[in-house]
Design a protein that fits this description.
Largest sheet: 8 strands, mixed
Radius of gyration: 19 Å
Order of helices and strands: EEHHHEEEHEHEEH
Strand order of the largest sheet: 1-2-3-4-5-6-8-7
Distance between the termini: 36 Å
Helix content: 25-40%
Length: about 200
């Protein structure tokens, strides 16, 4: 072996191909694809001003909820920038949708993904958002091959800040007044977690 050979970089292990689960089960919840029959449950929270105030977009109409279920609810793939997967969050012991979780592949080459969640405030304070998000984090790292998972949220969205902290995500950035929400300048926080940190 030549001296130069000693300095060759170690081969990197190829990432396992992603496995998109049809459902994700946690202690109390089932995360599953939306169906058109869920449109009313989804509209019940997506139409609320207090829910969409931190999403930087108008409330969804009933028709908009159904349309996005059709276009985003099907798990079509996880290979290209912008591919996204969305699950309805349901209790395992009864029907009805509590909210939703979504993960989006923002950079396929470097395996970066963004996680998000939206819940009906009727179910606040019961730990459902954290439980569902934890199930999705595990899926992102263990099944989808994500290297770095991050969340972007309004600094005033203290409920989501607490979810990020419970998941063990670290605050990596505070972007001061970087988003215009109507006539209000919003400050964005970025939280993130690496696969090796999750595994540890």
């Amino acid at each position: 072996m030549t001296e130069a050979a000693h300095h060759l970089p170690a081969p990197t292990r190829a990432a396992a191909p992603p496995v998109i689960p049809a459902t994700i089960s946690t202690e109390r919840l089932i995360l599953r694809p939306f169906t058109v029959a869920d449109a009313d449950d989804r509209y019940a929270y997506q139409a609320l001003p207090e829910v969409v105030r931190y999403l930087y977009r108008p409330a969804l109409t009933r028709e908009g909820c159904e349309t996005s279920i059709v276009t985003r609810g099907a798990h079509t793939g996880w290979s290209a920038d912008g591919d996204g997967l969305m699950w309805a969050v349901c209790r395992a012991d009864r029907p009805g949708v509590l909210g939703e979780v979504v993960v989006t592949l923002t950079n396929a080459r470097s395996r970066q993904a963004e996680i998000g969640w939206v819940f009906n405030p009727q179910y606040a304070g019961q730990g459902y958002a954290t439980e569902a998000a934890r199930g999705l984090v595990a899926t992102a790292f263990e099944s989808l091959g994500v290297h770095r998972l991050f969340a972007r949220l309004d600094a005033l969205n203290t409920a989501s800040v607490r979810v990020c902290e419970r998941l063990g995500m670290r605050r990596e950035a505070v972007l001061v007044e970087n988003e215009l929400d109507g006539d209000r300048w919003g400050t964005e926080c970025v939280y993130a977690l690496l696969a090796r940190e999750w595994n540890a």
